Amino acid sequence: MLTSAFGLVAALAWNDLIKRVIDRYISPGSGVISQLIYAVIVTTLLVAMTIEMGKIAEKFADEEEKKE
Predict the structure, then answer these.
(1) pLDDT in tens, 19-33
(2) Which of 36, 42, 52, 68 fits a 20 to 30 Å CA distance from 29?
(3) CA 64 centroid distance within chain
(4) What's the domain range around 26?
């Protein structure tokens, strides 16, 4: 439960950072474009992280099988 809370805090921090970076480089009047860019960035990061976590989990599973 505590790990989930820390994960949420980290996600909110990244959320704020990504929004600020987009706001800095994209004009404030382009709300839809900003939201699209934000969605693409977040989706790309999450897909990459999910793939990497899958590789790590697979590696641990292989090590557990070797121990048995």
Answers:
(1) 888 878 877 667 788
(2) 42
(3) 28
(4) 2-67
